[in-house]
Amino acid sequence: MSSRAAILARVRRALADVPSDDDFPVARDYARAHVAEGVLELFVAHLRDYRAVVHEVAEDALPDAVAAAVERRGARTVVTPAGLPPAWTAGLAEGVCLADGWAYEQLYDNSINNRPTVADRADRADILTTSTLDTADGVLTAAAVGIAETGTIVLDAGPGQGRRALTLVPDWHLCVMRAADVVASVPQALERLDPGRPLTWISGPSATSDIELDRVEGVHGPRTLEVLIVR
Amino acid sequence: MTSPPTFLGMPPFPEAARSAVSNPQLRHNLRKATHTIRDKRAHVVGELSDWAELRAAGAAIKDRTLRRLDEYLLAAEAAVAAAGGTVHWAADAAEANRIVADLVRATGETEVVKVKSMVTQEIGLNEALAAEGIRAYETDLAELIVQLGDDLPSHILVPAIHRNRAEIREIFVREMAEWGVPAPPGLSDEPAALAEAARRHLRERFLSAKVAVSGANFLVAETGTLVVVESEGNGRMCLTLPETLISVVGIEKVVPTWADLEVFLQLLPRSSTGERMNPYTSMWTGVTPGDGPRDFHLVLLDNGRTDVLADTTGRQALRCIRCSACLNVCPVYERTGGHAYGSVYPGPIGAILVPQLRGVATGKVDPQTASLPYASSLCGACYEVCPVAIDIPEVLVHLREQVVEGGGHRAERAAMRAAEWVFDDAKRLRTVQRVAARSRRLLPRRAPGPGAAWSDSRALPEVPAQSFRDWWVRERGAPPARPPAAPAQPPVEKNRIEEDDR
Amino acid sequence: MRVGLFITCVNDTLYPRTGRAVVRLLERLGCTVDFPTAQTCCGQMHWNTGYGKRIEPMVAGFADTFAGYDAVVTPSGSCGAMIRDNHPRAAARAADPGLSARVAAVVPKVYDLTEFIVDVLGVTDVGAYFPHRVVYHPTCHSRRLLGLGDRPTALLREVRGLELVDLPGEEECCGFGGTFAVKNPDVSTAMGADKVRHAAGTGAEVLCAADNSCLMHIGGLMDRQRTGMRVVHLAEILASTAG
């Protein structure tokens, strides 16, 4: 017998006492959200609580805010994923942006059960190598969803968000979060997300509590998370 | 044959605990760490007004999963395969280790980077890979401390919780060069400096690694999505940069639906690190060409879990989401640390999970395993904080029955029989009390035999001249057949509490 | 109201003065107290040590002895919890098929002493006088299994002359745990030593609790460590008066 068959048989034997006609309903009487008002303010407060740097900007001030952030940081090169609105980087000097060509939507539909087996595209000229990412000073991305109650930003490989490595290897992550995409709670965020996409949930900069349970920001991921919230 | 998740050669719990309790540095480290995290947990759990409902839902979802586990495993397998992953099934540790070693060898690599994972510790994967000439590098900071220090993990979330900053600095300075990039000169023991040293030590390895091994916190049956919850970014490095990813996942990690994550992503971080959300959570479904590994393998592991599932009381242990909240509030763990439990799963959850995985229900386990269900005062703090409402005290008592039925504790059984003889009949109880009272002046306040363990540190109570029942019968006679019409007059009070009756 | 006193085997044998205090207190509050002498032990030690399958006679004995009372009062948190939580479980697997019904009939009438006074009698001022500085230790089973909440401290706050001070780390187990104290003496003692240290640090003269088992352990440590503190069961404080 294969281990697959053996394990399944053992599971069924172990459950001999369980009635086969019972549905085991789950009571979902927990809250869909814990706050209704002040969602954006809570989002900002919780981001700051976990040491993210947060600025609120108007839409038309975004190019200047990006440029100012890059200048403050002293970043000479910033990775920009495919699909990032060109206006966001309009204030940057030529040569600052390192464009990465990978885009989720261009290659695949969202159906997880009908995924084409596409050859690896990492050898494409417009796909940045890991060592290029490692020498870049930062990365500028959009975001899919923000969660106020937890101070979380979720990236889903959508336009302007790119591959997971882009927001992992550079040491500075500058993220543009639209206020309209900030929800109150984890349940509300999951409703908006597609499980077929690679998802990264980010709550503040990389951190560890492994030494005496003291939280220290900055280990392997970006040590600085800077968020521009566009109202 | 299952491979027991044990540290070889560990003595039974009371013996291991004795040396731990007498180590003041360890006691200090543990006390500081466990109190820090239990306070943080209490704070963030207090922020959610519906914690009780979330906890009930978490338990119910897990119970629902476990009761239909075969169906959900098959659904998960199909979804992972449809998304481009390859699914393997491992009945025990040896089979899982062989699958992983074969997959690594097929890549031509001799090194793997690892995300912190309880299950790969349970099966002894690093040692098994080493025997095949494959070196596994732990990348979680605490696991790195343990690996560099040639130490054993002592906590589920914070495996190096028994170490303080000075000890960690010393391990880094001494050992890092052996494993790769050395510790920077003049390294201080500031946690930020130690974290920076770990970053530098592992950076190049992450960027060049071709194969990674992980566990998973959740596996969503309906979508085939795997979820890894972490803090440092080492998980993201391993899950994203290598070409091949092998995830070893216990069969109890499955949850039915995507929406079920809305419960666990609230319960787990707050219970575990005491944060509203951990810094990084990765979710992936099969392979995404151009983003992340091009080969993804899921190894579904039994290794004794179906034995746990077969025990109708003990199966609730399979709800565990490895948050370690029970360790952080446990007064026993706080004083002994994790090593005393002799397993990668220490603390209250370990005391119910490990004996079951090792087959305590069969009646034949080693003395170390048999000692684990007794490593608790049954205070109930673990149950109180468990985010999936595992009644750990209930299971501990249940496992004690299995130990007793396995034939352990001969002298104790005789004593229990004697006590039954006394307690099954009030007349016998009264006789015993009278004998004790008559000879009470002869009774030592330091006891011989098993009682010595008590009286080494605690004075024994003195036996009173008269038991309560003797007093009652003498004062009041036999109980009245029916209540008197009016309350009895209160007796004359002394102007103090009744200090002595001797 | 006809009250049956379940004194518990430990109190009966080792702490009769607690039992006498309970009788005095309840009678002062207007109750008629019976002590049915057929009672023995709730079976907690057997149950918690792994001999739960052997306690059917004790469970049956309890249910039958106390069947005729309006209320059953016990001055022990852990024994009360044993009856409430585990007698139904023990009865469910007993050889006697009728035992579950008898247990189910008696269990709702079982009260911890403080529950009975506060919830049934509706009293928090029991007219006690105890001019001492006191800390209250909420034993684990009183607190977590019975859910006594603030009933004990509500009663203590009304005691004249008594100064109630907070016990740091009050929610932490004292380390008794029945046979745990014998099977794991080093851990048990370490836990108890911390409890004693916390208590002594308050400057209190007395540590009280609603369970003499824990007090036996804590008091035994205080005795050996010569702290000058003593342990007193809550019932004895509530029974004491200015005369």
TrEMBL record, chain A:
InterPro entries: FTHF_cligase-like_sf (IPR024185), LUD_dom (IPR003741), NagB/RpiA_transferase-like (IPR037171)
Boundaries of every LUD domain copy: 40-230
SUPFAM superfamilies: NagB/RpiA/CoA transferase-like
Signal peptide span: none
Matches recorded under Pfam families: LUD_dom
Stated name of the protein: Lactate utilization protein C
Organism this protein belongs to: Embleya scabrispora
From TrEMBL, chain C:
GO molecular function terms noted in the UniProt entry: oxidoreductase activity
Limits of the Cysteine-rich domain: 3-84, 134-218
Coiled coil: none
GO annotation, cellular component aspect: cytosol
Organism superkingdom: Bacteria
Residue ranges of the TM segments: none
Protein name as annotated: Fe-S oxidoreductase
Origin species: Embleya scabrispora
Lineage of the species this protein comes from: Bacteria, Bacillati, Actinomycetota, Actinomycetes, Kitasatosporales
